[in-house]
Amino acid sequence: MKSNRSGKSLLLVLCFALLVPVFIRGYFQMHIAIMILMWSTIGVAWNMLSGYAGQISLGHAVYFGIGAYTTGILFAKANMMPWLGGLIGGGLAAIMAGGLGLPLFRLSGFYFSIATIALGEIVWILFTNWDWVGGARGLFIPSIGNSWWFMQFSSKIPYYYIILALFIITLMSAYYLSRSRAGYYFKAVRDEFEAAMSLGVDIRKYKTVAYSFSAFFTALAGAFYACYILYIDPDSVLMGKISIQICFFTILGGIGELWGPLAGAIALIPLSEFARINFSGGGRALDLLLYGILIILFAIYQPHGVIGMFKRWKRKNL
Amino acid sequence: MKVLNLTTGLQVLLGGLLTGCIYALVAVGLALIWGLMGLVNFAHGDFLMIGMYVSFWLWALMKMDPFVGLPINAIVMFCLGVFVYFFITKKVLRAERTSQIFATFGLAIALRAGAQFFWSPDYRMISTPILGGVMKLGELTVSKAHLIGGIVALSLSIGLYYIILRTDFGRALRATAEDRHTAEIMGINTDKVFAIAWGIGGLCVGIGGALMASYYYIYPDVGLMFSTLAPAIVALGGFGNIPGAVIAAILVGIVQTGFSFFMNPAYKLAMVYALYLLVVIFRPQGLFGRR
């Protein structure tokens, strides 16, 4: 019954999403739609670990950056097509997360979050000072005109469909993860820690798997970003503020909710682009001020985000 | 690359020690709250930034030197701490961990952006501090602001520890940390204890900010590093352990200074974070923590 409903809502969203380019024509509007899907993809990936397993990663930009840099470097230095470069980046991110998972998951709660921040800082500093990949100046990806092979298009529509496909795949993976044995273990440990522990659930192994999946999809989104923007530098893909942005839409949409990231991104990306264009002149950062206040308010009053609000409203009224 | 001999070694040790003492003052405020409430203030470094701006504006508008204005700074920041407790922290005290993390995380972003919004992202500097210039200690050179700052910071950290060990308030605080409900039954107003602890946390960074304002640039993101570094220092020292936090802070100061002097300053923080990660992976309870 439940699974049926999820399937229906997925179909509905899919139909709507497929038609978006028919209704939206403007370059800028298309860009916003692409950004919504990209941040939703990353949010869903982040949710796999932080939402379902309850381990809040505040350093996920590491994986976004690894995906973007691997794709960018392989393209710029070895002329490798980004489809393959992206997969290699995703694989590297998954291996790294897998290797780090077992030691990192000895830490829980705040300790884990602080460790992920430290990890993010280390990688950011290393890339900022690594001259071969452009250091702080960043890395340009050569523009070679329209080519499916190299994922470069003059129109925004192909980019839109590529990121839509990635979003759907990520969403389905998250769905299956949450319904798998690992998903039920996470729920058990999150809600009834002592009881689950006393039953001998070895959660570290499963958390590591979730971490790897999460890193993999985050890196694929990073690869997409590199191909879409054609320029990457440590401050735009690895810096701490990117890690914040990764959590941001999901917090507002609903942590641990399948549709949370999308809801948050739809609600906020147009708003934040609007705020950035209209109010942030002269580096005044009004958009960030709004972000911060929204995060505080949601953390205090709506910890389950927009989706949580909606669910409560539905329970009351239907 | 510089050569290690007695003079450079002592110079680095002194510089690292003094930097570490300031870090310690910032970290003890955090450790106090963490140990008491089991909650990390991710905006702690941004409190420090506000403290530095308080010093800056006292100097810019009223010609008051940061060192002279130190008590005012302490009072202002104490009030900020109490305010944040009542309006933010208190509301997530019983909430899920996620809410606890993001409430102060959001506060950090808001404070940083707020400072940029109201005071612009410009770098500012107090150009004529009383504690300007350097002094010689035998072969060693040290800036006056750094020396006095380090000494004051260390004394305050020790003073705070003494308050926690020996005064009635300290006993109430430790009782609350141990078992909140029993403490309440014993007639301790835990709400007040929490509020004062947040006030003290603010006071520590307020004073830290006043001390740093004499020799450091002041800009909205100046606290960013501390918001990240301070929790790492406290975790390195051990959960809510104040002497542990002080020792870890001094260790971090020395490693950082030594690495930037002898190796490459660009990687100093990467080095510190790597050290921290290595320690907590093998000793999740930190250097001086108990399991």
3D architecture notes:
The complex is a heterodimer of chains A (318) and B (291). Chain A has 318 residues and is mainly alpha-helical. Helix content of chain A is 75%, strand content 1%. Chain A contains 14 helices and two strands. Chain A has helices spanning 2-23, 27-50, 61-78, 82-104, 110-128, 157-179, 181-191, 193-198, 203-229, 234-237, 240-253, 260-279, 286-301, 305-317, and strands at 139-140, 231-232. In chain A, helix 6 (157-179) packs antiparallel against helix 9 and helix 7 (181-191) packs across helix 9 (203-229). Chain B contains eleven helices and two strands; from the N terminus they run ααααββααααααα. The radius of gyration of chain B is 19 Å and the shape is globular. Chain B has a two-stranded antiparallel sheet. Chain B has helices at residues 6-37, 44-62, 70-92, 97-119, 144-166, 168-178, 180-185, 190-213, 224-237, 242-262, 268-282; strands at 134-137, 140-143. The model of chain B has no long low-confidence stretch (mean pLDDT 89).
